[in-house]
Amino acid sequence: MNDDRWGHLRTQCEALEPGSVLLTPVSDRRFDVRRTDADLIVVSFADSGEERPLWREQFSVLVDQLETDRIDLDALQPGVEPYAVILSLADEFAVRADALVYEPDSDVDADEGEDNPFVVPASEARTQVERIHDDALLLAALVERLDLVDEADLSRLDTDVLTDCYVLSSDVQRGADRLRKAAREPILERLGPDQTLHGRYGTVRRTTRTRRRPKDDETVFAALDDHGVPREWVTGVDPSKLDVVVEATDLEETDVFDVEETVYAQKTGIDEDEKYSRLQGIADRIESLEGPEGEALRDELETIENRLEDALSAD
Asked: Is the pTM value of this prediction over 0.70?
């Protein structure tokens, strides 16, 4: 691979939008470009954190093949996939019908051509956890900017601001609920019966919830007949009437109810003071930072906000 071609490939890698990732066509693995050097391009895979060097001489082998024949993407070996993806960034190569092809004379400008299927933009590349963080940060900034005293103040907001408040609240709630459910199983594995776990912001304990629903009418009436209970006592199979019958006779609960027990982690305490102190401490430290370090951090927060605004606008 000559210097001009290699230089162009490095430039295309370095021009990728910050936060965007690349996607392998067969194994469906996400990776990003960490750096480019004179003889290699270093990539990092998101699922493992593994860094892998992609060598210039290996790119040359693939380019030689592409100049005479197409490369079928479906048949790529895992070790070759990232090479093909990186090559697809160059103007002279394109993805056509599940194949990487060489198009040296293409007159389609790279910015006006079809979207590269292996490039995942930053707004879509964020993980669910990153989305929760970003949404919560935006909602917190919005609430702070609006200086709301209570929920009644929402009625005085302009329609566009009220819409943003609703959208962000919904996104944070949905994302937080997914995170809560994902945390439930490992929490339950660490919670023994009647045990309480304590964190910085609150506590949880293991609780068993029992849900019952009447069996079908035929089964219930047969059980009542077997125990000499008049059917009219529960005509229509009213659950509240069944409760009384179960309590007042020798009829077993399981004879007339399908009983289902659900084990879950119940929130039993919240330390709002600790949460507020933590958030205030973070805000104070950011505000007190001066010089390049403080400016860099504030720029990073502004970038996060811009990313979320772009994502919300895209939806």
From this structure: no
